[in-house]
């Protein structure tokens, strides 16, 4: 590899213990066959889709093609105490994959093979760089599906899903990533490999290291293989869209579904401003039908009966209810929800909130978000995984503005206070990353944070991996 | 409290680091208002339902009535380095709650209140000593249920369920304890209290300490409060029982249900010898109908249609299929399965295996168990949570015989080899406890075990809690 002398660090790397000089890190990685210091590659690996823009770029990028490449990279990092940022598809929403001068990125996006699918056991073994939608396409050939389906399914990778314990629409019924990952192979910060979990559905030998890695945001190890649990595709799926005067009415309708003891497989909410943005980007006409939108899907042998129950539960709140007549109509409704983030990205720089609240506090949370928008002067667009109480309030600022200071930052902080006030949490499924660190201690408390940092020290005593993130 | 001078330890306490003299431990706990050295209390707290009989009894028992009592006990233990064995209902099946001379038992079975139920959020907050069936009875008043339902539901407590990550029948569809525990309050070995998890369905701030405590078998802390996720009671439930010539045919039928992409809420298998034992104990007549039994239940809006699909899938294997005509018939069939362990306990000392295997290897596993019985000369009775591939092969020996040596021990070891050979695990839901420790390293591997022990050291550097168990 050609070694470029990188620009000196300008101080945006997370400060935590001594950071090496950039040049020293670059030099050590000269021997890695997959490393590059190409400026374009380094710039491309410097941030994610959180809207965060680092002031510097990493010293080098390792484009790993195998577990051995990852092992070699971490051995070098361990030996020379070089901070490493693990990277997958770069679609994270919290700055977890952002990298700075003095750091080396280990990118696993080329490790993108589906190694095996066992259709009888309903298990897929995959590399971390495979995209979520590719796993689902392969599973569909066997009448199966992989339940965690972030809105970004077409562009996000399984490794990143694992790093953040990603959710999505179907997790209303089928649980988040933790419930669908049976086992992992992980390269530890010193280059050793450990296997966690198993191929069986149940198993309790030892502590649940599998769950510990899931959601650890790349701070404990780099996943090089995952054993995923697939599920039978439902024999029947039914879909409806309902429109409401405003988002509070839609929030009350969602809570009414929960209170009526119904288990939708999808329950998604969008507010009026988001509908406007989607209509503008996609040429659809949702906003004309109401000031808020609720998408509900049921599945299973009694899907049609369960959708009847949903229609009945939301009737007192809705201005209109439309049942999808066929698969094409259903897919168009689901697509509207998936289009929300890309549509908003056409309006400016987007910073996506991710608070989760108790499910009967949804209407209150939406009201609180309106107040935050009024108070801070930022524009907030809201969608929610309503069956889980997980809201994504999206702050949109001018592309020239920062999301890590000024009104956008203030609004993010107020969202956390709002979540806390109603008994909720800072992040439901996107992770803490770089952007939400300052509220972590307040949510977890001193004792929990101390234990978690001590656990990190067990895996990564030198803080090589994703330093300054997550905790 | 009155201090009795305990009998000297006779060497059965798990050796791991220095163990205090029994008398010293007793003396330190004199100041605890809930401690007793009454010989009957100490004998009662010395073992569980695993069939293991310790040669000594613990020095004292603390009957905690509050979190403060647990804190006080662990502060004493921490200060004086006294090994503590946490105890709930004492229904464990792996010796995890067994206690010996030199140890003090902290029994939380009197902490048995349901603190609150939120019927809208579908959350129960409970103390650890409340029985599993009591939670379900309280939830039923609100149209809800608590999914993890071990066969011992009437006598096992939530704290023990958490310690072992207990499963049960309904976890075929609804997941194990980990999927139903949202949050915990835990007293650490030094007396500090930490809260884990949250009241919301989703949340990823920090590492998953909640999952780390679940299944840790009392080695990381003592749970004093749990926030449980309840679920809507299904609108409809349908049940059938099928009989087969032998257990291999029943195993093939269970695998056929999985392969047909059907999701039963219960799928339980019993072999002929177990049916004999149940019939003898309960006056039923299952054995006359076949050499193996499969119980299947479906639930939800389309339960009747899904049960049709199950009947179709198993028809090629079954000799007869009986659909329950009403709730009473369905409950009688479920009861037959719940009666299995108590029925076998009438035949002798029972040691319960708990291997889990890939779901399409069930028939092979049953065949392997028959070979183990023939080779070791022990009687093995088998039941299985068939949808999860979790088998409970029960070894029954004469009450005068030990289960920790001789043929019973040899058979347990062979079961582990069998599980390993077909890609399975040592324990699906009962835990390692004292009785399965010697196979843990072989399953986990050196690196994983080393990490897990280092994690234990973070929580319990002095190894005060349940020393010599689990890892």
UniProtKB/TrEMBL annotation, chains A, B:
User: So which cofactors does this thing need?
Assistant: FAD
Q: Does the keyword Flavoprotein apply?
A: yes
* Domain FAD-binding PCMH-type: residue ranges: 54-233
Give start-end ranges for the coiled-coil region(s): none
What are the record keywords, sorted? FAD, Flavoprotein, Oxidoreductase
Give the start-end ranges of region Disordered.
29-53
Residue stretches of biased makeup (Low complexity): 34-49
Q: What is this protein called?
A: FAD-linked oxidase C-terminal domain-containing protein
Which PROSITE patterns does the annotation name?
A: FAD_PCMH
**Which domain of life does the UniProt lineage start with?**
Bacteria
Q: Does the keyword Membrane apply?
A: no
């Amino acid at each position: 590899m050609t070694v470029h002398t990188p620009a000196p660090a300008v101080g945006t790397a997370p400060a935590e213990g001594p950071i090496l000089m950039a040049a020293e890190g670059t030099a050590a990685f000269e021997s890695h066959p997959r490393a590059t210091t190409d400026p374009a590659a380094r710039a491309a690996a410097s941030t994610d889709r959180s809207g965060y823009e680092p002031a510097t770029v990493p010293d080098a990028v390792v484009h790993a093609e195998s577990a051995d490449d990852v092992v070699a990279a971490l051995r070098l990092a361990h030996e020379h105490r070089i901070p490493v940022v693990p990277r997958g598809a770069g679609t994270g929403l919290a700055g977890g994959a952002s990298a700075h001068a003095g750091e080396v990125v280990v990118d696993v996006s080329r490790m993108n093979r589906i190694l095996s699918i066992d259709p009888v056991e309903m298990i897929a073994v995959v590399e971390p760089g495979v995209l979520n939608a590719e796993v689902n396409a392969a599973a569909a050939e066997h009448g199966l599906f992989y339940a965690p389906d972030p809105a970004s399914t077409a562009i996000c990778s399984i490794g990143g899903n694992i790093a953040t314990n990603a959710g999505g629409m179907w997790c209303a019924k089928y649980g988040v990533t933790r419930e669908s990952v049976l086992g992992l192979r992980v390269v530890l910060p010193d280059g050793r490999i450990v296997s966690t979990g198993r191929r069986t559905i149940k198993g309790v030998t030892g502590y649940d290291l599998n769950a510990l890695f899931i959601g650890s945001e790349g701070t404990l190890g780099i996943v090089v293989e995952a054993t995923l649990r697939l599920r039978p595709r439902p024999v029947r799926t039914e879909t409806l869209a309902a429109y409401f005067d405003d988002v509070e009415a839609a929030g009350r309708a969602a809570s009414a579904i929960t209170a009526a003891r119904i288990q939708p497989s999808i329950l998604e909410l969008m507010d009026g401003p988001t509908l406007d943005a989607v209509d503008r980007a996609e040429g659809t006409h949702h906003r004309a039908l109401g000031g808020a939108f609720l998408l509900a899907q049921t599945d299973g042998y009694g899907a049609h009966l369960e959708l009847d129950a949903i229609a009945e539960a939301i009737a007192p709140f809705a201005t209109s209810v439309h049942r999808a007549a066929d698969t094409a109509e259903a897919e168009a409704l689901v697509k509207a929800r998936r289009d929300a983030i890309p549509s908003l990205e056409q309006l400016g720089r987007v910073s996506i909130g991710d608070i989760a609240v108790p499910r009967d506090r949804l209407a209150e949370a939406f009201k609180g978000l309106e107040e935050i928008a009024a108070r801070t002067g930022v524009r907030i667009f809201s969608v929610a995984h309503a069956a889980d109480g997980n809201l994504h309030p999206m702050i949109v600022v001018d592309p020239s503005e920062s999301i890590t200071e000024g009104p956008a930052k203030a609004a993010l902080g107020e969202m956390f206070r709002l979540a806390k006030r109603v008994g909720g949490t800072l992040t439901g499924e996107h992770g803490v990353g770089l952007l939400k660190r300052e509220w972590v201690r307040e949510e977890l408390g001193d004792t929990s944070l101390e234990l978690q940092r001590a656990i990190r020290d067990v895996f990564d005593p030198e803080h090589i991996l994703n330093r300054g993130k997550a905790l």
